[in-house]
Specification:
- The structure is a homodimer of 337-residue chains.
- In chain A, strand 3, helix 4 and strand 4 form a beta-alpha-beta unit.
- The first copy, chain A, has a domain of 77 residues: Hypothetical Oxidoreductase Yiak, Chain: A, domain 1.
- In chain A, helix 1 runs antiparallel to helix 2.
- Helices cover 41% and strands 17% of the residues of chain A.
- Chain A has 337 residues and is an alpha+beta fold.
- In chain A, strands 2-3-4-11-5-7-8 form a 7-stranded mixed beta sheet. A 3-stranded mixed beta sheet of chain A has the order 6-10-9. A two-stranded antiparallel sheet of chain A has the order 1-12.
- Chain A has 12 helices and 12 strands.
- The radius of gyration of chain A is 20 Å and the shape is globular.
- At the A-B interface, strand 4, strand 7, strand 8, helix 8 and helix 9 of A face strand 4, strand 7, strand 8, helix 8 and helix 9 of B.
Chain lengths: 337, 337
Amino acid sequence: MSETVLLSLEEARSLSLTVLQHNGFSPAHAEAITRSVVAAQRDECHSHGLYRLIGCVETARNGGMDTQALPLLHDQAPGVVRIDAQRGCSLLAFETGLPMLIDKARRQGLAAMAINRCFHFSALWPEVEAISSQGLIGIAMTPTHPFVAPAGGTRPLLGTNPLAFSWPRPGGTPYTFDFATSEVARGEIELHRRAGESIPSHWAMDAQGEPTTDPTAALSGAMRTFGGHKGSALSTMIELLAGPLIGDVLGHETAPANIEGTGKPLHGELVIALCPQAFLGSDADYHLRHADTLFDNILEQGARLPSQRRFEARERTRRYGMSLPKALVDELNTLTN
Amino acid sequence: MSETVLLSLEEARSLSLTVLQHNGFSPAHAEAITRSVVAAQRDECHSHGLYRLIGCVETARNGGMDTQALPLLHDQAPGVVRIDAQRGCSLLAFETGLPMLIDKARRQGLAAMAINRCFHFSALWPEVEAISSQGLIGIAMTPTHPFVAPAGGTRPLLGTNPLAFSWPRPGGTPYTFDFATSEVARGEIELHRRAGESIPSHWAMDAQGEPTTDPTAALSGAMRTFGGHKGSALSTMIELLAGPLIGDVLGHETAPANIEGTGKPLHGELVIALCPQAFLGSDADYHLRHADTLFDNILEQGARLPSQRRFEARERTRRYGMSLPKALVDELNTLTN
């Protein structure tokens, strides 16, 4: 069993801020990134937790990301906020635009925030939960690098294109989901490769477009969308809405950051907020409570709600702190030298 | 091979109008329903074509649907149109609200139309294509009767909850999809039952919650969502947005129309329109054309676009007319007596 270290929320926050500021991130960027990775760590989403700081620092050192970028806010239309992240991390852009998005959604009923030219490496659920925590419904989507073949195709074209949704529940934790539109996360295939294990043949295909159980062949081939042609259609919708609709690139036009600084993982993100009070006036509270009938019925037949494990982890962290692999904490500490 | 009859678009339109008006539908409802079923028949979507008139007339005769209902339009918020269908068919409500939805989306950037208390039996793609034909992006969703178990559950709770999307392509047919969030359409299981064929075990479960290959057991059990827990989450989102958000019922609160007239298949529908010009100003044309890169890349690797077969059928119909089973035309003619 590997050695672990117990950190309080405040200790995790402090470690993250130190790593980021030591690597040139402005205080505003360091705070925004820290809020996201500490929230993920708190909920035991390890892949989007403090571990992400390693890739974040690497991307900054490769010279792709502007660690001091000031997001430019533009009031595009009564229902549309646009923010140019100016080659900075998406998270500060999101936080900068959020108040205007919420205000517009409350006035108009629904509103959209288009984030352009951002580096995106975080989970989407902290963003949609920032919206549902204010009593609105949040939807977020973003394209990623082209790792996924469209249904019926044989070559990488679509991103793993995640979709997130959060619905506010008065007096309770929100109904939130956040999933990649690929059959599995790319990291899952990486983990199998490292462990020397084969993968199920429906996860991916090799470079010749044939189903493969070899994770190495899969990583140099193409992943599949979840749910066949339906997942493929949904993934395409995400590329279109978080790409051309907001004047940004398609997944296949992005590239991983590289040491030469020529890789440009920059792309867009679309966030939508809907306001129940604007749709329903004073009936909103009744209908929001009525939605609980659906959640109760799901639980009552033994099924789970999407973020249930995460909320249970959040409660554990609140009581006992967060347990991190010592190797990760050591590696993060080397990034402060 | 079964006998077929060739009808022109005009003949199909005339047959549909006659059936509907003879069965008490107001001219406005008859026109709106006819536009939808003839469009589906033109595109060789037989299940949503003239065949739907049989169920439509049956629902009206059962006394559930108000065939004369006047939809009530309400300008709810700068970005929200609400329409009370008043127990009438959804299609006239959609057409009544569409101009206000488009106008709001052009002004605000995006807008929503909430249709309440409607009977819904049509495909969603003609609606989202009515939006994309005006240069906007259309999204539509509606809950249906509870035939589907949530992932991890064993009993029917969710509707087959379809989602439709249409993206305008300058000078070409739009990128459109319209799919149920169940693994297959309920009609597909019905067809297997009639043909005495077994079904794949991942389509549905029996009344005890066990996987089944028996279509009869499946129809009295629960269907599965497509794509496991991701499809289940998407289906739940549709119930919430086209239910409580618009002040309407959840899937499990609807019931099929019955001869006693006590069944109430009434529910809501949510339609969203987004306007590229409002998001992008004069750059919109460039980015809409740029989106074609994605479609070209999908086709180039041998994959298909979701509505490709339908557009090919549309072209066939334009040239040669539409071929219908004689038995269907005969049955429709009996409904005019």
